[in-house]
Amino acid sequence: LEIIYTRGQGKKVPVKLRGEVESKRQFYISDIAFRPDSVMVYAPKEILDTITAAFTESVFLEEVSDTTHCRLNLMPVKGARFAPSYDDVTFYVDMYSEKTIEVPVYGINFPEEKLLRTFPSKVNVTFMLGLRQFKNVTADDFKVVIDYNTLDDSKNEKCMPIVLQSPAMVKNVHVSPKEIDYIIEQKIYFND
User: First-to-last CA distance in the chain?
Assistant: First the structure.
């Protein structure tokens, strides 16, 4: 039996997960919540200085398709004591769904005297996202562009719209149609 004395030195450290959690096809882990998200660790100063987090015991879950709760013990560190010595971890699961929205096409890097016109002026953007976020994602969250620099040498009558901006929570983003017709007009200025 080894006894380690400490003068009550302690600090708060975050709880971190050790292991892997894999969702079933068409599902994804949308969030992981730790309760509490941090714990107190007590140890002699030389041990305390080396501890930056409290890791859970290893957990391996497969084919998860619903929100799952686990009580996991914290991995012991010789000479240290965690309070509490366990953590309640929740794995929030969401289902992927496909959504299509109509997004306007904009020109970028065009000289001031040139104007882009595309046919059609809007394209369909299709992507996967969680059902919980389905209503929150709109056309305003995307930016679809035609870059003048890619047209400069091209004699093609069609161009490829590029998704320049999309929300982090969406996956597998693609544009339809893949190519659109365009013309570049010269702006005309009238002097008064």
Answer: 96
